[in-house]
Amino acid sequence: MIDKDKDYMRLAINEAKKAFKRDEVPVGAIIVKNDEVISKAYNTREYGKNALYHAEIKAIDKACKKLGGWRLVGCTMYVTLEPCPMCAGAIVNSRVERVVYGAPDYKAGAFGTMLNLTDYPLYKPQIEGGVLSDECANLLTSFFKQKR
């Protein structure tokens, strides 16, 4: 794990904290290309009343708009929780080159924990899990303890 990965994951954690403050599941994502953050997002499913408003989907949408196309070749996504099947599919289809996630998702993780969409033959992003995993997991645990 390189130090830049930790630095970028901290930015994703800051996005997740924004979700927490809005009473949303605290997941944050950022997309980086050539050492520049090109998009940032966090979950807003409850606020937006939309099942698609996961942090990863929103970050992909913003990155595509900023770069002017649907292919995110050369981009790395940093996300605090291992992506679900919907988000993993969007990552594969948008050609994100590398995904760095914090905490594994034992219920819905689609990059190796529950299933592995990197087995999909179309495009295989490089996956790195466990970056600042304790900090990412603790944020989620705190959120769900508060809800119970």
Structure commentary:
- The structure is a single chain.
- This protein is of the alpha/beta class and 148 residues long.
- It is 41% helix and 20% strand.
- It contains five helices and five strands, in the order αββααβαββα.
- It has helices at 3-21, 45-48, 55-67, 85-93, 133-147, and strands at residues 28-33, 36-42, 75-81, 98-103, 126-128.
- It has a five-stranded mixed sheet.
- Strand 3 (75-81), helix 4 (85-93) and strand 4 (98-103) form a beta-alpha-beta unit.
- Helix 1 packs parallel to helix 5 (133-147).
- The radius of gyration is 14 Å and the shape is globular.
- The mean pLDDT is 95.
Number of helices: 5
Largest sheet: 5 strands, mixed
Quaternary structure state of the chains depicted: single chain
Q: What integer value in Å does the Rg equal?
A: 14 Å
Output mean pLDDT: 95
Spatially, the strands of the biggest sheet line up as 2-1-3-4-5
Residue windows where pLDDT falls under 50 for at least 5 positions: none
Would you report the number of β strands?
Answer: 5
Strand content: 15-25%
Proportion of helical residues: 40-55%
- How far apart are the termini? 35 Å
Output the structural class: alpha/beta
> Can you write the helix and strand succession as a string?
HEEHHEHEEH
Global shape: globular
